[in-house]
Design brief:
Elements (H helix, E strand, L loop, with lengths): L7 H15 L12 H11 L4 H14 L3 H6 L2 H8 L6 H17 L7 H4 L7 H12 L8 H10 L9 H14 L5 H15 L17 H4 L17 E8 L1 E2 L2 E6 L10 E2 L2 E2 L9 E9 L4 E8 L10 E4 L1 H4 L6 H21 L1
Parallel strand pairs: 1-7
Antiparallel strand pairs: 1-5, 2-3, 3-4, 3-8, 6-7
Helix pairs in contact: 1-11, 2-3, 2-6, 2-8, 8-11, 9-11
Length: 346
């Protein structure tokens, strides 16, 4: 069992006092925190900053105001609305979760952590957040912000994300989580990590726990949490085709798994084309979590378009389907450039 440096009740009291005076209270998902709205916000906030998520959350709620509208939606529309947030599997999992709640639970979310964990795409943190924010009941949470706060406050050694360290962090979360005021407590933990106990240059003088934080007292805030060992990110080459006919662009739907799963994309080929008529057209770079992509786009005049996964899209249709962010950027650049050229000719 993890040894605490502070009393759990005192920890909660201090955190709640700080959160109510200095925490964030105007985030859009804090208004009417239904389980559905909390779920959408939490999935969007995975690996994405709050300031980026806010406009996406607001647009999402305008189009899919409830779980029923999301469950009934076309996947292309869902992915199109998610466009720019990245990690598109989150959008697909969100829709799977909506359909599970509708089909298996009669449209009602569970009211326990164990029940939440049965929903597709809902992990331990998200389940705790749903219980805390939607129901204001005890739901322990441990995300990146909380890990940083706990590792510094209690001088927890080791790399977060490893089994041993995460076990300690979750023990702390369960021990420190109060039996009431859980919405404010959970928000306080997240706010503390996001606004004061930041990865670099934490604002220790303003922290309500500076007098009990071991890392601060010992001058080790730069050392904790223990950083992950650095890895070399490999670079891979990619080849894509730019094929237009009668003002339409040929796209191919990607497989259900892998990079850019289920999104529409320029057709990808395994190697540099050797076909007659193919010429270098454009290029782009994109960084994924595990590698960097250096892509060459080739223009081809006589393509094989018999594949069932391929489809022609007009400029208007392109705006309504989900495209990977770098592909969207390239398409918009090229279409705009060609429109300018045509206008100059006219």
């Amino acid at each position: 069992m993890t040894q605490l440096c502070v009393d759990p009740k005192q920890f909660a009291t201090r955190l709640l006092h700080w959160q109510r005076s200095h925490g964030r209270h105007q985030l859009p998902w804090q208004e009417n925190p239904t389980p559905y709205r909390v779920l959408v916000s939490e999935i969007m906030l995975q690996q994405t900053q709050v300031i980026t998520v806010i406009p996406y959350f607001e647009r999402w709620m305008e189009r899919f105001p409830d779980i029923h509208s999301l469950a009934r939606a076309n996947e292309d529309e869902v992915l199109s609305l998610w466009q720019g947030l990245g990690y598109y599997s989150r959008a697909r999992n969100l829709q799977k979760a909506a359909r599970y709640v509708i089909d298996e639970l009669g449209g009602e979310f569970p009211d326990t952590v164990d029940g939440m964990l049965k929903i597709p795409g809902v992990g331990r943190y998200t389940a705790g957040a749903l219980i805390s924010f939607a129901y204001n009941r005890p739901g322990p949470i441990v995300d990146g912000n909380v890990k940083r706060v706990f590792c510094r406050q209690f001088a927890i050694e080791g790399v977060p994300g490893t089994t041993v360290v995460d076990k300690k962090l979750w023990q702390l979360a369960e021990l420190l989580t109060p039996t009431e005021d859980n919405r404010d407590f959970a928000q306080g933990l997240l706010d503390l990590g996001a606004t004061l106990c930041t990865p670099k240059s934490p604002d220790c003088p303003r922290c309500p726990f500076s007098d009990s934080c071991i890392a601060h007292i010992e001058g080790r805030t730069a050392e904790l949490p223990t950083p992950k060992p650095k890895k070399n990110t490999p670079t891979r080459q990619g080849h894509f085709l730019w094929i237009r006919s009668q003002d339409k662009l040929l796209l191919e739907k990607r497989p259900d798994t892998g990079i850019w799963a289920s999104l529409w994309c320029l057709p990808e080929i395994p190697v540099k084309p050797q076909l007659a008529g193919a010429r270098a057209f454009d290029s782009f770079r994109h960084t994924f979590s595990h590698y960097k992509l250096e892509a060459q786009v080739w223009q081809q005049e006589s393509p094989d378009t018999d594949k069932s996964s391929m489809q022609w899209f007009s400029p208007r249709q392109l705006a309504e389907v989900g495209l990977p962010a770098p592909i969207r950027k390239l398409v918009e650049k090229q279409l705009t450039s060609q429109q300018v050229e045509l206008a100059m000719i006219d």
